[in-house]
Amino acid sequence: MTTWLDSVAGIVGPRHLITDPDTLAAACLDWRGRYRGRAQAIARPGSTAEVAALVRACVAAGAPIVPQGGNTSHCGAATPDDSGRALIIQLHRMQALRAVDADNNTLTAEAGCTLAQVQDAAAGVGRLFPLSLASEGSCQIGGNLATNAGGVAVLRYGPMRELTLGLEAVLPDGSVLDSLSGLRKNNTGYDLKQLLIGAEGTLGIITAATLKLFPAPEATATALVEVSNPADALALLHALQARFGDRLTAFELISGLCLQLLARHLPDARPPFMPPWCVLLELNDGGDEAVLNQALAEALCALRPQADAVLARHARERAQLWTLREQISEAQKRDGPSIKHDIAVPLSQLARFIERADAALQQAFPGCRVVCFGHVGDGNLHYNVSFTRPDNVDLFDDEPAVNTLVYDLVYAHGGTLSAEHGIGQLKRDWLRRYLPPANLAAMRAVKQALDPLGLMNPGKVL
Hints:
Layout: H1 3-12, E1 17-18, H2 21-27, E2 39-43, H3 48-61, E3 65-68, E4 86-90, E5 97-101, E6 106-110, H4 115-124, E7 127-128, H5 141-146, H6 154-157, H7 160-163, E8 164-170, E9 176-179, H8 193-196, E10 205-212, E11 214-215, E12 219-227, H9 230-244, E13 248-255, H10 256-265, E14 277-285, H11 289-303, E15 309-311, H12 315-326, H13 328-335, E16 342-344, H14 347-364, E17 369-375, E18 380-386, H15 399-412, H16 431-434, H17 437-450
Parallel strand pairs: 2-4, 3-4
Antiparallel strand pairs: 1-2, 5-6, 6-10, 7-11, 8-9, 8-10, 12-14, 12-15, 13-14, 13-17, 16-18, 17-18
Helix pairs in contact: 1-3, 10-13, 14-15
């Protein structure tokens, strides 16, 4: 063991300094199996003070720092480079719920808490923490913050930026930013937490956050509804919003191909019907659940009298419907690799974008396959392309051409190449093509000011 790693062991304790090759290899591989790096070791601190001491030790040794939560990034944001010099800092041990203030509708959690733990803690005091992701049992709050996670309830509650009131973080010099306020109004200078949220660990390591809670809904109504195409889905969205307002919490678009992949690879997630497109929607409200379900049934009968639809009768059926949406990524992963896009366009442009992108891809790559699904209520699509060549051979050789085609159309329709998954390594080089030079210059200036040595998660975002 090197002298430097001896000092790391002295900070976290020998048990929490990991150099085992198998454990290191798993931490150096991203969730998709796309990026593989190397690192000197993994350190697992148990407190903010230990995180700060680790950062100072890394600065003294000139060692890169890679913060890692649940390692569920889709963009290689938590994977070290191949230099083998980095220290991976995992926050699994930092799972304390520092405060739960039901009267203030806030909860302060350490970054190593899983999203599910925070949801359960909120439910324990009759409140709701509304962020909901397929990986909520393993993704951690620190990673959710670092990527500004969105999920299925953004339509009503917004992404992590809107769900966060205060933040604690260790900055690249080892100092601690202490701003765990539970205030809704606080205009004392720059809102520094917003620099760190969505920065993917390149400006500091988030160690705790004060999060907004909401009244727990007393009534829920969930339905899977056939639609003819994305334009039809948007018409239904607007009609339901006009009728139910912000009680409409989730509105997810799912293509028929997604359902076919589920039936092929995950028979337990069996779709009740096979339409060309469908939406999974949910209402939340106070009061009587039977009344809410009856209102939704009447609305769907009036708005889509000829469409197939399934309304969940109880919690178990609701979970079965949500399993369809949550397991799409796993079904596609089992089917083989794909060129993934986490894009967003204005709702007014969404149907036109899908139509034009589908046509352009078929012209450029005849026979290619597009798996399209996502949070259509806020314009965020997961638009994944495969089989650009027969049998999906050498798919990633076509990735530059596919990305150029898709992203050019995204920006032509007023959109963005990253809606909720972040930039990481996957999209880093595409920022130069699509982000205005002044925006990039400002981002580089912030990075230089906070991390002049470039040690904090190098190679990500910029």
